[in-house]
Amino acid sequence: MRIFKGVFFMSLCLLFGVCQNSDSIHIDIDDFENQRNAWDMQSLSDYMLTLSFWYESDNVTIIVRDGVPEISTPSSWLTQIMFSTVPELYSYIEHLVENMKNEHKKGRYSSQSIRVRYNTEYHYPSELNWSRCIRSSTRAIDGDCAESEWHIVVTPLNH
Predict the structure, then answer these.
(1) pLDDT of residue 53
(2) Number of domains in the chain
């Protein structure tokens, strides 16, 4: 009888989709390749890239000329961070997604998610949200999570 109950409840769970997998990964990068191709086709090489973060009061501003980052505020951004241009931002997002998939296979995180939204005029990532929760272990508390929310604005510059 106990086996029948277990099979019955598992069938209901699968049938109605109410079972929750504690090892979840959610990737919502929408139309990533088409947006990147649309950005590339514009050949926009002179712009100001502004980043704001939910955890920082100061924005990061980067001036890009001929596709090369020239100036940033703070100045340390150009040497310490993985991206300073929109193509590098696209590559950074790609890296985050691949890293999440690899970590999901390893089972290190109990949940991970990434969400990207795009500017409809210039086709750059305008919003990036990601989160990770570490699996319970001797070194981490179950539910020890990290999350980040970035807002990005690109302003074309005139020559």
Answers:
(1) 83
(2) 1
